[in-house]
């Protein structure tokens, strides 16, 4: 046995991760794929890499030094279970199986428990950065046991992206913690993308600029506080001309957004945890709305406002959009971190939120300057209950809020959908409110279902005898 790490599943992500591993000093990489051709292709295309090809699970296990460590890079769901079952057959107690796919964290919790029974370690690791990240340095979010981290830590540190000298990987927490954090990363990714799309739409409809001209706006924004990978690639996409028609590419792409499910998982999980991730939810629903052509077709004739968007000062308008985007982005991240905090409490994970923000600074899809500010906020106050109340964000929101409000009202007034902008603002105002109409909802619940309420002026739980003489009585707490 000569390989210190193995990769199972040699589609693009798996091959690139294997190449990344092989390119780092000290690693020898065993590679295995269900069909032999992918393994042969990889070996042939990369003679420079020190791969140890295996053509059966037995061979794969035999080529790995102990504790054997293998990263699975196959489709989430049944294919992952099938590979785990095969590896368990040939691995021994103390060995480590890493699932590097986008698994649902509850599957990871289940698998970790089942695999642990055999004495083998199972680590669910979120890996972000797409194909390029896998090859040159992804952001890695591993869960699993402390024991497996001892072996895995140095290997993952060797291949992760580096931000300000620090590798973008940390032991996030036990069992499913890594995949949970990766799920929320993707939810934030959805929100960020939707916000950028809304900004583009408003600028286009408000100023009449061409996609190529708007690309310059995004390129400019990328030099400021919005600097991020997603803003950078937005400029690239908007600049692209379609070879077949000569049109901007964005104008010939069908406007129906796909989704593989991680955004929906983030929202479903948040709903069960009771965490209001409204920006992420709107972003996910906006993709759903776009993808129902039959509904959109029968709806285009619905009445809209008499006047479209009228912009007098395009530069001022664009600056307003930029500020609305920045403020809404702060909300999206704040909501995402809230979900991680709530998930950690629910599943008994110790998650260092500052460390999470640091490993997102490079390698991953949501990488941005901005993550440094989040890291600062958690450095200053690790148990910060609401991220956006950190001084830096309070200042930024204060600076942005007037523009944010103008953009949300302008979009409503002119009939341009900006669901993520407007729901983020509503969340912000909801948080700020000293009193919420939730009091009325409690009254309604008590009226029709005797669900009881609490009072602001004394402890205890109360019920009004609505169908009797309407006096108030003390009651059992039913929530
Ligand atoms: C990443 C990406 C990656 C994948 C998304 C795409 O972090 O590298 O998030 O995991 O590209 O899952 O998601 P949708 O297909 O749902 O947009």
UniProtKB/TrEMBL annotation:
GO molecular function, one term: phosphogluconate dehydrogenase (decarboxylating) activity
Protein source organism: Microbacterium arthrosphaerae
Gene name, Swiss-Prot/TrEMBL: gndA
Keywords: Gluconate utilization, NADP, Oxidoreductase, Pentose shunt
Taxon lineage: Bacteria, Bacillati, Actinomycetota, Actinomycetes, Micrococcales
EC number of this enzyme: 1.1.1.44
Enzyme class, first EC level, given as a word: oxidoreductase
Record-linked Gene3D superfamilies: 6-Phosphogluconate Dehydrogenase, domain 3 (1.20.5.320), N-(1-d-carboxylethyl)-l-norvaline Dehydrogenase, domain 2 (1.10.1040.10), NAD(P)-binding Rossmann-like Domain (3.40.50.720)
Involved pathway(s): Carbohydrate degradation; pentose phosphate pathway; D-ribulose 5-phosphate from D-glucose 6-phosphate (oxidative stage): step 3/3
Domain of life: Bacteria
Protein name, as recorded: 6-phosphogluconate dehydrogenase, decarboxylating
Membrane spanning residue stretches: none
Family label: Belongs to the 6-phosphogluconate dehydrogenase family.
Record field: catalytic activity: 6-phospho-D-gluconate + NADP(+) = D-ribulose 5-phosphate + CO2 + NADPH
Residue ranges of domain 6-phosphogluconate dehydrogenase C-terminal in the record: 178-467
